[in-house]
Amino acid sequence: MLGEPTLSAQARKIFDFLVQRLGVAIPDLGQDTAGDSAALSARPKKNAKAVSEEIEQGLPQPSGGRKEHKGDHGVVVDSFEWFGYKHHLLVGVEHEVPLAWHVTDTKAGDNERVPALLEQAQANLPAGRIQALAYDRAADDEKAHDLLHGEGIKPLTQGRKMWKEELERPSPDKGGKRYPLNVLHDEAGTAYCYDTVSKPPVMRPMAYVGYEKDGETLKYRCPAKHEVWTCPSEERCNEGRELGMTVRVDPTIDLRRSPPIPRATKQFEKKCKARTAVGRVNARMKVFWDRRRQHHGGAAVSRLGGGGNGGMRGAGDVAGEDGAARGEHGRHAAGADRAGATGGERAEGAGRRSGAGGRRRRWGGRQASEGVTSAGPCAGSGGPDSS
After folding, report:
1. How far apart are the C-alpha atoms of 252 and 258, rounded to whole Å?
2. What percent of the chain has pLDDT over 90?
């Protein structure tokens, strides 16, 4: 019943309403976000008329999907296949609360769903709240990077391995500006300088010193000057400059290669690890709704979606944290009362057992005085059978 179009629309409205209220109440909700997709198993409907109705409504149909995990060298190290849908989710990493969700067929790429997810999340949060978006390599797409750059959101995505043979390339020029010939960059966008005096030449990563908002450039300096060590090429490169050779990279030349937070920095590594939050939210949804074992029929699940249900539950959980904290003292007191009551019951039980033992001892003494034993009244009374 919840899969009906009218009810599913109401469920999404409820989800959006809860997130909007939380966005106002929690100042940092959605500042750092993360997105990912998860497999949702299903089975096709056998009723052709029902399938055609769902297609007319614009609902996706279940299909076969495959997800591959590649290593650092672009080689597939693991894969997973399923039949059903893809559940796309965008969450706030600090509080692990869903901000937007969509259900599609298995053919929809993660990079294709970034605009729709971002639009829903931005509509649910105050303007300018989202500052960073973490995703896996599937979202390392030029269109996605252009979108995030236009919205002023820092992308935190690992770069895809697309260079087949080259290890580095000369830094690209723009507007007639030339970089030193010994400055290059790798596929991840890390800037390197070559010590050409040493034999053989030595390649070293340049020191990243920050993002210049005024010029919108990434600023790198000589690693020897920044880290205080002697480089054989210092005279040739630095030419007596106190801070050494400085290189400014314009990220708009290649947004995929030069994000505002370079991939080789500790800041990027720390923020990118926050992407695990979306995995935990997806895992909790699978527990709540038993998604890994449940096989939904047709496109009913795409109407309601798991993000709405899990999001409403997650929003309720966050909203209830304050009430839970306030009731903690009461729970402890109630626990102490229960412990005291339990101790009293145990003592009362021990008293009852002691009283029962006393009654048994008195009954045994009375039996002995009257010559009655467990064998019967004739056993010790000298009755007719005693002879």
Report:
1. 8
2. 31
